[in-house]
Amino acid sequence: MSSNPLSSGVSRRALLSALAILSVLPETLLPAGAQTAAGDPLPSWNEGVAKQSIVNFVAAVTREGSPDFVPVPQRVATFDNDGTLWCEHPMYVQLAFALDRVKGMAPLHPEWKDKQPFKAVLDGDMKTLAESGERGLGELMMVTHAGMTNNEFEKIVSDWLATARHPRFKRPYTELVYQPMLELLAYLRASGFKIFIVSGGGIEFMRPWTERIYGVPPEQVVGSSIKTRFEMRDGRPELFRLPEINFIDDKAGKPVGINEFIGRRPIAAFGNSDGDLEMLQWTTMSGGVRLGLIVHHTDGEREYTYDRNTEFGKLDKALDAAAVNKWTVVSMKDDWKRIFAFQ
Amino acid sequence: MSSNPLSSGVSRRALLSALAILSVLPETLLPAGAQTAAGDPLPSWNEGVAKQSIVNFVAAVTREGSPDFVPVPQRVATFDNDGTLWCEHPMYVQLAFALDRVKGMAPLHPEWKDKQPFKAVLDGDMKTLAESGERGLGELMMVTHAGMTNNEFEKIVSDWLATARHPRFKRPYTELVYQPMLELLAYLRASGFKIFIVSGGGIEFMRPWTERIYGVPPEQVVGSSIKTRFEMRDGRPELFRLPEINFIDDKAGKPVGINEFIGRRPIAAFGNSDGDLEMLQWTTMSGGVRLGLIVHHTDGEREYTYDRNTEFGKLDKALDAAAVNKWTVVSMKDDWKRIFAFQ
Questions:
Q1: Which residue, A129, A146, A167, A244, has most beta carbons within 10 Å?
Q2: pTM, 2 dp
Q3: What residues contact residue A268 under an 8 Å CB cut-off, 6+ apart?
Q4: DSSP per residue over B111-154, as a string?
Q5: What is the ipTM metric for this complex?
Q6: Interface contacts A/B by beta carbons within 8 Å
Q7: Looking at the complex, does the CB of residue B259 fall below 8 Å from at least one CB of chain A?
Q8: Which of B221, B227, B260 to mutate against chain A (most A CBs within 10 Å)?
Q9: Which of A203, A219, A205, A151 is nearest to B287 (CA)?
Q10: Is B194 in contact with A219 (Cβ distance < 8 A)?
């Protein structure tokens, strides 16, 4: 996660929760090109530089005999999750989960009524919550993410996702995945790639649903984690989640996590923020034909607009690096015919 | 690694290096049964309870419509490495690597001539080395495993493995893999299993060769690790290996590592020592048909004999637990027609 996930997200949330109108671009108005072309693997992508760079890359590394050919086992692609595969505004989904969970746990913790940052959550006072900073948010995450077995946590996450709704789109968060990126995952998979998610989000927050939503099995999910402890309790083996950070899979942690979990250097990486800069460097600056791609949030009507001037999900250094390193920058507004499947 | 890998290994080494005679059981004397049966997936296994338990398990979980059927994505099997897939005597291969590397680095470290535990290594004084305990061995591991990039380390390991020879068998360590276990890996893979190595050994010591030797790709190797740091140096992204423990994948650490790296609970686990006890518990004590298997080193002629009365590679609690939990105990002497492919 970025260092201060709430700072601008909170004010934006207040703003956005007032928005009720969804701007849906009718399919009939979409340019026909790729959409109707038989066998187009990326039908939700407009023709253009971004789409072409993807298709060219895949063609280059999969064409046997080509000097750029990469054998199947080395076709590793890594995807950030928040803001790259699904919507991260007005706040990280995992933070929305934590806030809801505080509310759910509150009856067992009467002391929270007078104790920050819990009081702020219960009062819906996002400004005070944001002011509690990393320490306050850290406490919130630990209380809501630790203190149970890993099986219990998996059920808590699954149950929450089944009922929680995005404040603007009024849909389950798992429907707020980017349709063009789902097509990209399928296209790469069909081209012999093994897809890994490499996210700053919690690894056990993602694993309960990534296979169903993205087709990415648990063993191909890399993320941040807290420590766990193995224990035999009443003759049963259990893993208990402890309130202690194990690994932060963000920024310079992403290449570290990739190396530790995957043990191969990716040949393609996909992100949307400065948190992905080092993963993109690690992937693309290794000689050979490589693909670095940044999803640029340029569509305030269909989704959100943000880049340099936000703390949360900031895309600044990585945008400069994209120009220098010839990474593909995808404008959600211009390059995507649709953003969500329901639009 | 076990807590005191040298303590009994050293004296044994002295003993074993004197042994020159390999006792090879002529193939013609082997019982014919499975060996000649067409399509036997485990030709190096003698017929018996151990082999039958494996075949029965695979049949149960792969038979569609059976109450014990397990869908392919959940067919996860985890294998310890040292002593389960390859020979760990007279010392862990990784320790032999560290000792050789100290010798190779010594010209650049004249101070080692008077400094323990390095002096002991250079003098070939295994007794003093063993007495340096965990701290001395830890220092040895850090000096030999950290201080370079991950790419450099991979090359160091590969180069060493290409020339190093086992003191008794006079062969590359990568030939000292158990032929019956290679057949078991292939059999499980052909039955829809995804194989993971879950070893106390160093993850980056194993990854350079596990794909070639076992068919297990780097992303399916879980092991102990030191920390790494990402850094741009001279405009190039690098991962530097730091002299600091990151994770010890042994004993109660194995279920933790399995959960963190794989995110699924295995349905079959294979080990040979008390270091595998918790992995076997975690795997088998979860309801449903499960396979826990222990390789018991009972063959001093063709390999080594050790279990309860050794510090190094000790099999004691896990052997008791095997009886209680109905894990399969494989006697290398009785259950395996051959141990190494070259025998």
A1: A129
A2: 0.89
A3: A57, A76, A77, A78, A188, A193, A283, A290, A291, A292, A293
A4: GGGGSTTHHHHHHT-HHHHHHTHHHHHHHHHHHHHSSSBHHHHH
A5: 0.88
A6: 100
A7: yes
A8: B260
A9: A151
A10: yes
